[in-house]
Amino acid sequence: MATMSDPRWEGHVPPTAFEEYSEKYAAFFKMRRENGIIELRLHTDGGPYIHNWAAHNAWNRVWQDVGNDPDNHVLILTGTGETWFRGDPEETWPRPIVDEEPDYIFQQTIDAWKLIENFVNNLDIPTIAAVNGPGIHTEFALLCDITLAAEDADFMDPHFMAGTAPGDGLSLALQHLMGTKRAAYDIYSGRSIPARKALDYGLVSDVLPREELLPKAWAIAGDIMKRPRFARWATHNIVSRPWRKLVAEDFGFHFSQQMLATVAAKRQVPDPDLVVEARSRKVW
Fold first, then answer.
1. pTM here?
2. Nearest 5 degrees, angle CA 40-CA 43-CA 45?
3. Which of 167, 185, 243, 247 could form a disulfide with 251 if both were Cys (CB 3.0 to 4.6 A apart)?
4. How many CB atoms lie within 10 A of CB 71?
């Protein structure tokens, strides 16, 4: 590893190598790295990402491995094909979570908690999202330093519409970026926040045709790489500071309310009867 080649580092415990963690998470992310820029592309079997709990569990650890590798200087996060996220809530949540064993509920809670905490706190490098289409779980994209979106991207929050409270990090991002009143209206209504409106609201940095997203992301990353490393690191610290404060102060409250609402409902969440419209919009 180039950054640890100095003999004074002899005996150090090295971080996990790119070759190892890129293979470890290959079922969830296609990774490539060029000149210090690492791209993580969500996928399932090489196609659009379809939500599953194995990936949900892996997310909190991949942020750690990527963040711990000193050869990663800029992160690009994107999806595959024409959607950011797909999934069938009836398969993901086949029964009410209150009917699950305590250890299962605990693991679900820890995974959802740490995947946000680790994304914000373990990535000490500039981050760029290229949201390639509609889909939920866009909180990671919104938490990035720069967020590019395809014309048909959709940033709606489905939680209240599906029968629970909005606590997994998306509502936190919406409140911070678009304001309390706008966020409340969109949280209660579950209405679409298409890319152009998201740009007007300050949720995203730019809207581009899908075929231009990744080239633009790589161009921005390449431009960032022209600056000294300490400048890149310090600038990311400055622009991500609001997120770190919000996660430290508010995320635990948000997420505990979602888990309380989901468990106390004693019914299947998401409620299949309440997500028909979301499916039609390709967010599930």
1. 0.93
2. 135
3. 247
4. 14
8 A C-beta contact, residue 42 and residue 80: yes
Q: Which parts of the chain sit beneath pLDDT 50? A: none
- The number of helices, as runs of H, and strands, as runs of E, in the chain is 13, 6
Amino acid residing at 245? K
Distance CA 190, CA 133 (A): 17
Q: Work out the end-to-end distance of the chain between its first and last CA atoms, rounded to an integer number of angstroms.
A: 41
Amino acid in position 146: I
pLDDT of residue 6: 81
pLDDT digits (tens, 9 = 90+) for 197-218: 999 999 999 999 999 999 999 9
Number of CB atoms found within 10 A of residue 245's CB: 12
Rg of the chain on CA atoms, in Å: 19
Interatomic CA distance for residues 208 and 212, integer angstroms: 6
CA atoms of 107 and 220, how far apart (whole Å): 37
